[in-house]
Amino acid sequence: MRAYLQKYTSAAPLAIFRAIFGLMLVISTARFLALGWVKELYINPQFFFSFYGFGFVKPLGEWTYLLFAACGISALLVAIGWYYRQASIVLFLSFTYIELMDKSTYLNHYYFVSLLCFLLIFLPANTMFSVDARRNEAMRAGEIPAWCIDCVRVLVCMLYFYAGIAKLNSDWFVEALPLKIWLPAKNDTPLIGGLFNQLETAYVFSWIGCIYDLSVGFMLWNRPTRPFAYASVVVFHLLTSLLFPIGMFPYIMIVTALIFFPAGFHQKLISYIGRLFRLPTAVAKPAGRYQFPAMVRPVVYAVLAVFFVFQILFPFRYLLYPGELFWTEEGYRFSWRVMLMEKAGYTQFTVTDANGKRQTINNNDFLTRLQEKMMSTQPDMILQYAHMLRDYYASRGFVQPHVYVDSYVALNGRTGKPLIAPDVDLAQQCDSFRHKSWITPFNNEIKGL
Amino acid sequence: MKKYFALLLTMLFLGCSGGSDKPDPQPTDEGKDRSVMLKALAENMIIPSYDQFKTKFDLMSEKSKAFAAKPDAQTLGAFRSAWADAYVAWERVELFDFGPAEKQTIRNFFNIYPASEAGIAANIADPTSSLEVPASYATQGFPALDYLINGLGANDTAVLAQYTTDKDAAKKLAYITRVVTRMESLLGKVMGEWKGEYLNTFISKTGLDIGSSTSLMVNGTVLHYERYIRSGKFGIPSGAMANGIAAPEKVEAFYKKDISKTLAQTAHKAYVDFFNGRHAVTGEAGPGLKTYLDALGAKDSSTGKLLSESINTQFQAAAAKLDALKPSLYEEVKTNNQVMKDTYNEMQKAVRMLKVDMTSAMSITITYTDNDGD
């Protein structure tokens, strides 16, 4: 371990990663703004689904734009490596704050970006090919500890591997679900559309997708298999971007996987771009080794050790809950479970009170369509919404309101059935990390992990 | 290891090309072709239904002119009967609330009830008042005509007096003409689009993302079943929706009363026919949501029963409740409200199947934003 920690390698791969990753986030932020999503997702709604324990993280009204500006500008600063350390901290905080504002917009790839931003705070990614290195000779270094690059690689491998593990279940493997449902929706794609009508295609995609996820990290790491692995990364992610509305994620993964390429590749890239921008050789290919300050080093080791232990364990927390994970979604998020379910729901809430008042709720009076869609299939969000209704009607003259929900949820092509016990007064249930006993049992089995 | 991976990649590409090498069109593939479904629905159902409605509407328009020219018992009777026929025919097109109809928001101007008596009186007094704003919805369309020809007096003599001896008789006749003319113009716009450029747009936007024809059509028609059949015709008048307080004056065709069941039955049957892709003229089943779901193989995994069959069974259960009602839903709410609530509850079960089981099986998108399919 000691020997490993003292191993040094070229700083070029991390510098390139920093630059490209920063640029991707600049583009992501600009795209988000250009599509009007800040207003649609974070300003227009009346109610936001905060994460348990993060209730204080709320959109800031019109100031939310400032938050996005901070995110975009800090991403740009990270990309060019100017005031890198401060910028990476602002980037991590602003990006994570944005993602915590409303659960209904949760995406695994946003979580992945947050984690990468967190890692970047601790990594010396600005020792070359950066404005910092150009302005300050003392910051320059051509070599950094090898673990600095490896920890980004490990995180990428974990994402794929855990996504692969999550696919080891009977719905995915035996039934080709949900791809069997999703692919025919794309049967009007030019040239290859007809394929998506074939059941075989769903099976082939399911199996290859799973094997791909489980193996691609190792294939990227292993030099002989790397070219094939990278080609498959490109094909796989372009195919998913063609089939599903997953935004920037495929492109972020395609460029992130470059981190597995050897230093020579990155150094060539830097030298080429360096010539375009007339960077001095001392910035494009500096000499010297980066040394973590002695005071800081143990702290960084400790933080990263805790970080990775957490990353390894956290996705398995679902084992602590009874019931089917896909149904209850207790321990579903932050676990690299991507594209695993076709789940749809319908919820009709009724608020009553002691004086016989009774109101059937039109969800669209309170929630956006996206929020309603997400809430209808996720018990913790159903509870949050029920509490919102309780408080709303309490302020409108309902005496100690009761909130009941008539829910109907379909999972991976199974006929819908109630997700929540209809006779439970949700106004009186508390949210916590404990199992929610008022979730109706699934009464069906999805075998596997 | 390398070979193993190369093999996988080869499999992927073989898997990709395997199907296109054998272009033998299987019947299931055709069933999954949304352009076939869209074309059939537009040409066999939507456009002919509008044509049928237009015939009835034109007849009503003609009778309304005859009545305006010479208001007497005979012209009133003819106008009323043509109005009822047109109203029933409207129920067969109201569900197509997507594309042109959605753009013109034709439903808002044709069938928002209960009619606003005060609003209608104000519009009669002021012929320059706007009929375009949301506040005017309840002062026009079939419900307003219902009030004007059936509700202005306690009996036929009293109604006729409003158009003959009343000091504002001319203004009232003019308002009838104004309402009918406005309906005619809106209907012309909607039908013009369906028979023009929109038909091609409709057939060619074959995706399932938001803004595509299938998505617009399914979202629009499911909303129709939920909000305008289940809630509008049953849930709201019976009080099943809010506070449990019955509101019999909120039934459809409140002034005529005895056609409210026929209207509801027609609307429900129109929806079932739409689901089953029945030709508007011949009644023959063709490509539609049912055939599409069947081609997708949508079925309950535990019983193996086709989803389309389950939905049709539920439609039948709702129709059975509806068929057993008295002709006047107003009377039912007043005297036997539980049967109204029962009908609502049966329809509620169908709503869930349409909103959840059907849209999920079809993989229809409802939002623009990124999604990783959690």
Short description:
Chain A: It is a multi-pass membrane protein. With 449 residues, chain A is mainly α. Chain A has 19 helices and five strands.
Largest interface: A-B, 73 and 57 residues
Assembly level: heterodimer
Whole-Å distance between the termini of chain A?
32 Å
Strand share of the residues of chain B?
Answer: under 5%
Shape of chain B: globular
Strands ordered across the widest β-sheet of chain A? 4-3-5
The total count of helices of chain A amounts to 19
Please outline the major beta sheet of chain A: 3 strands, antiparallel
Q: Name the poorly predicted regions of chain A.
A: none
CATH homologous superfamily annotation of chain B: M75 peptidase, HXXE motif
Distance between the termini of chain B: 32 Å
What is the class of chain B in the CATH system?
Mainly Alpha
Question: Which class do the helix and strand fractions of chain B yield?
Answer: mainly alpha
Largest pleated sheet of chain B: none
What is the CATH topology of chain B? A middle domain of Talin 1
Helical percentage of chain B: 55-70%
Question: What does this entry look like structurally?
Answer:
- Chain A: It is a multi-pass membrane protein.
- Chain A: One of its GO terms (molecular function) is gamma-glutamyl carboxylase activity.
- Chain A: This is Vitamin K-dependent gamma-carboxylase-like protein.
- The complex is a heterodimer of chains A (449) and B (374).
- Chain A has 449 residues and is mainly alpha-helical.
- Among the domains of chain A are: 7-145, no CATH class; 326-428, no CATH class.
- Chain A is 51% helix and 6% strand.
- Chain A is built from 19 helices and five strands.
- Chain A has helices at residues 2-5, 12-34, 37-43, 64-80, 84-100, 108-122, 131-135, 146-166, 170-173, 179-182, 199-221, 226-243, 249-256, 263-276, 281-284, 297-313, 325-328, 369-375, 379-394, and strands at 8-10, 143-145, 343-352, 358-360, 402-411.
- In chain A, the strands form two sheets. In chain A, strands 4-3-5 form a three-stranded antiparallel sheet. In chain A, strands 1-2 form a two-stranded antiparallel sheet.
- In chain A, helix 5 packs antiparallel against helix 6 (108-122).
- The two termini of chain A are 32 Å apart.
- In chain A, 46% of the residues are buried.
- The model of chain A has no long low-confidence stretch (mean pLDDT 94).
- Chain B is mainly alpha-helical and 374 residues long.
- Chain B has one domain (27-362): A middle domain of Talin 1 (Up-down Bundle), CATH 1.20.1420.20.
- Chain B has helices at residues 2-18, 27-31, 34-69, 73-90, 100-104, 106-110, 117-125, 141-151, 156-164, 169-194, 197-204, 213-238, 260-275, 289-296, 307-323, 329-335, 337-362.
- In chain B, helix 3 runs antiparallel to helix 11, helix 9 (156-164) packs across helix 10 (169-194) and helix 16 packs across helix 17.
- Chain B is globular, with a radius of gyration of 24 Å.
- The chains are: A mainly alpha (449), B mainly alpha (374).
- Chains A and B meet through helix 3, helix 11, helix 12, strand 3 and strand 4 of A and helix 1 and helix 17 of B.
